[in-house]
Amino acid sequence: MRWSSKGGESMAGATFLSAPALLGPRAGGLPSVSVTSSPARRQHAYVCCHAKAGGSEAAAAAREEPPRFRRRDLIGGCMGTAVGLEIIDGSTGVATAADLIERRQRSEFQSSIKGTLTAAIQAKPELVPSLLTLALNDAMTYDKATKSGGPNGSIRLSAEINRPENSGLSAALDMLTDAKKEIDSYSKGGPIAFADLIQIAAQQALKQTFLDAAIAKTGGNEEKGRTLYSAYGSSGQWGLFDKIFGREDTQEPDPEGRVPKWSSASVQEMKHKFIAVGFGPRQLAVMSAFLGPDQAATEAKLIADPDCRPWVEKYQRSRETVSRTDYEVDLITTLTKLSYLGQKINYEAYTYPKQKINLGKLKL
Fold this sequence. Notes:
Blueprint: E1 2-6, E2 9-15, E3 35-36, E4 46-52, H1 56-64, H2 71-79, H3 97-123, H4 128-139, H5 158-161, H6 170-186, H7 194-217, H8 222-232, H9 239-243, H10 267-276, H11 281-286, H12 295-302, H13 309-320, H14 325-338, E5 345-346
Parallel strand pairs: 3-5
Antiparallel strand pairs: 1-2, 2-4
Helix pairs in contact: 3-6, 3-7, 4-7, 6-7, 7-8, 13-14
């Protein structure tokens, strides 16, 4: 903070720092993954604000003690249309205008991707179960011992999609390939990675099942169902998932034998695989919709296992409630963790050059 006084008019220079929520990988709550960033690009930016002093006594007091500003004074009075800036302790780090622009670019691109995928899913709702299994199988190649595999887009490669455990998933992959062409056509920051596309498609497919359940609870009335989902649903629980955006596609298929064929695997084999990637019976039970096209049949299989039974029953009860909170929130949490297993996230992916602004010519 700089402070000076001249001719009864006081001037303050404030450094705008990013809030924890805006700091991407540096903020609390983000996954413990490797981060690609460009520290050298971070620079301090100063904005000068004018405040009227009320006479010589006020000016003298101002010289002795710098004034205290409220955030809305600086942002509302000085920046006008500035959105999302925070003034916080300098130890957190400095966000330049470029940082904020890049985050907005990524957010807008992600919103467009979701729109494209939602339209594709609504056109072919029968592919929802396959989209969920596609995301699961791409991620389940993760190996903790070697830190290899995971949701890296390898399932798009012919050597992997044609494996027995991925039987029946080609139509879902074809749909995403077509969607990718549309997405790449409007992307300003390069083509979207299949690794990102597959996981976001699972997110949108899951949202569609949540919305469909809400509509069903209102007797099939779509308007009331959407209102119910907005009021009681889990749409606000996707924040962390959305931040994990910037996976990199691998160019080689992951090793064979890492993913069971869920339809024929025993519950013990399923549990073993989930435990191997850091999950357990709880996550296995909540992801029953990802394990095949018939969720009821999968749960009937899981409920016979004493470790899975209490969780299956818990989520079945939750789905009968209006809000379905336990089921939907736990499922979102599990998918989020699954979606970055072993991945290095580039938090500057899909950004593009910005028009340079000469701060010296800004009229505040």
